[in-house]
Known about the structure:
Blueprint: H1 3-7, H2 11-16, H3 18-28, E1 34-40, H4 43-65, H5 70-93, E2 94-100, H6 104-112, H7 118-122, H8 129-140, H9 147-156, H10 159-171
Antiparallel strand pairs: 1-2
Helix pairs in contact: 4-5, 8-9, 8-10, 9-10
Amino acid sequence: MSATAKNTPPAAAVAADAHWAATQERLRNRTRPTATLTICDDLAARQSLDVARYALRRIEGEAADRPGDQAVKDAVAKAKADVETAQAAFDKASIILTFRALPRLEFEALKKAHPATEEQAEDGHDLNVESLGPELIAAASVDGMSVDDAREYLDTWSEAEAVSLFNAAWNVQETSRMDLGKG
Length: 183
């Protein structure tokens, strides 16, 4: 008996429970989680966006206290337009890297391929992040980043930026989109 035949419920059972068949189809077609890392080297664009967002929050607070004031409503509309303009400039100046969670068994194999060195193990680490980092980043990259590129970025970017790059690829592996709910 094939694996597919083993996992396919009898037609009578599916007909009796079409809801489960539809649920199974949705489960099989789920996509793996993705995460993005936004890099913006344009300080002016970043500051303009922050200032515009701050001004919008401030004027929205004022609008809540003065709901009938047309001048405040107009100021809110202008502040929203300013945020949109600043966001467009920020987006244009930014580089966005996208990472996708690996299939669990692939991620486990990648971790096993990079055990901690003796010294790292003595420090309580299970993995060799130095060797795992470029491999994980490249494997999780939706953009096609190579292992060599990932290694270069990890080696040449600032500590904080290199950590952010690694964390983007690592954290998406731990993303859960489930809620156990109340039982």
